[in-house]
Design goal:
The chain has about 400 residues and is an alpha/beta fold. The protein folds into 2 domains: about 140 residues, Aspartate Aminotransferase, domain 1 (Alpha-Beta Complex), CATH 3.90.1150; about 240 residues, 3-Layer(aba) Sandwich (Aspartate Aminotransferase, domain 2). It is built from 13 helices and 15 strands. The strands form 4 sheets. Strands 2-10-9-8-7-3-4 form a 7-stranded mixed β-sheet, sandwiched between helices. It has a 4-stranded antiparallel β-sheet with strand order 11-12-15-14. A two-stranded parallel sheet has the order 1-13. Strand 3, helix 6 and strand 4 form a beta-alpha-beta unit. Helix 2 crosses helix 10 and helix 11 packs parallel to helix 13. The termini are far apart. The protein binds pyridoxal-5'-phosphate (PLP). Pyridoxal-5'-phosphate (PLP) binds next to helix 5.
Length: about 400
């Protein structure tokens, strides 16, 4: 049999891609991350835990134990719902604030997959999702590629404004509301208890489901923690609550979970199976072992103490370099500080100059579903030492002073 050569074409073959991904070959964030990877740049752009703080020896001991004592199971396929040991541990942790049975847990490969699974399970093209303005941009992406339309709801220093939420529900008839109530990404803000209750009241009355994303809640600098909205009366059944081990243990192991109640649990498992069958069994068993045997609370306390010093360093350094009328958050936990420079400033336009000066941040416009405030920037304070933070913020200050 002879094989005829492929016809010569002037253009290389180009796969046709789905409309929902059209124009997404690159993103401003990808460009920013590669800029920020330069060695001469101090980057505050990514929400990246300080690797020096990883509990490497504890994690190594857990992997060793799993491979030694559960090796054959760990290397085999598992179940879409997640391994029983991990679901038990997740339920135990959650039950400190919201009574949870292991059967109500679905394991995911990080919260990011959780958001995608939720979108697969719940969203129809054209559905509206109400989000905080601003909100976590990769959640917007996970919902948007399923054809959903994001509508941003007004926020203040206490998070989403209940009256505005109610108004948006009446106007847009959303399929769901997506909130990050504790140490929010990107602002670092936390909803106080009274605000959570007011939001829950609106959601109960209007019957709109909540997707509550809580990857940062344990990283508290004050010792105070906030129970999720899912723990409020009547909210457990109408909330899908997402947790992640990324910020507490390691983002590289890619393990998180969702808590839900009722028949939607089956839909979530089917969606998860369609996407990835199950999360890595060896990683699930290792995280379960870690939660069972390691001193996670001690680890979180040590990490939070370091992050708190860094938050302080950034807050101290940034206050004098911001223009009059600027607004900056003072987060009680998490990883991010959010600055709005105010009228006349465009953080995206300033970025190239900042990078030339050796400092990078994430321009805030991309966190808005609509009507972006282009004067905003997100700065992660967790990756660098206080001395490095203070020096780099000084250089950012010189750039800010040349604008406006
Ligand atoms: C609010 C929020 N949700 C979800 C994620 C996804 O995290 P992971 O997939 O690592 O759990 C992040 C990561 O930065 C986040 O900030």
């Amino acid at each position: 049999m002879t094989v005829s050569p492929a016809p010569e074409t002037a253009q290389p073959f180009r796969f046709p891609v789905a409309a929902r991904y059209a124009g997404m070959e690159s993103s401003p964030l990808k460009d920013i991350f590669s800029l920020a990877a330069r060695e001469d740049v101090t980057s505050f752009a990514g929400g990246i835990p300080d690797p020096a703080l990883f509990a490497l020896e504890d994690v190594r001991a857990c992997y060793d134990w799993v491979l030694t004592h559960r090796g054959h199971r760990a290397l085999q396929y598992g179940v879409s719902e997640g391994e029983p040991e991990l679901r038990e541990q997740a339920a135990r942790r959650l039950s400190r604030e919201v009574a949870t049975d292991a059967s109500q847990i679905r394991v995911t490969s990080g919260s990011q997959e959780g958001l995608f699974v939720v979108a697969q399970a719940l969203l129809e093209p054209g559905d509206v999702v109400l989000v905080e303005s601003p909100t976590y941009l990769a959640a917007v992406q996970a919902f948007s590629v399923h054809g959903a339309r994001m509508v941003g709801v007004e926020t203040d220093d206490d998070g989403v404004v209940p009256g505005a939420l109610e108004e948006a529900i009446r106007t847009h008839h959303p399929r769901m509301v997506y909130l990050i109530p504790t140490f929010q990404n990107p602002t670092g803000r936390t909803m106080p208890v009274a605000r959570r209750e007011a939001v829950a009241e609106v959601l109960r009355r209007t019957g709109v489901p909540l997707v509550e994303d809580d990857p940062y809640g344990a990283l508290s600098f004050t010792g105070s923690t906030w129970a999720p909205i899912a723990a409020l009366p009547g909210m457990g059944e109408r909330t899908i609550l997402l947790n992640s081990m990324s910020k507490l243990m390691s983002p590289g192991v890619r393990i998180g979970w969702m808590r839900a109640e009722g028949p939607v649990l089956d839909t979530l498992a089917v969606a998860k199976a369609a996407i990835s069958m199950q999360s890595s069994v060896v990683d699930q068993l290792t995280v379960a072992r870690y939660l069972e045997t390691a001193d996670l609370e001690g680890h979180i306390a040590r990490v939070s103490a370091v992050y708190r010093e860094r938050r302080d360093a950034m807050a101290r350094a940034i206050a004098p370099v911001l223009p009059a009328g600027a607004h900056v958050t003072h987060p009680d936990g998490g990883m991010f500080l959010w600055a709005a420079l105010g009228e006349g400033y465009d953080a995206q336009d300033m970025l190239a100059e900042a990078v030339e000066a050796g400092v990078a941040y994430l321009p805030g416009w991309s966190f808005f579903a609509e009507r972006p405030d282009r004067s905003t920037m997100r700065l992660s304070f967790v990756t660098h030492s206080p001395a490095v933070i203070e020096e780099a913020i000084g250089r950012l200050g010189a750039v800010i002073a040349r604008h406006g």
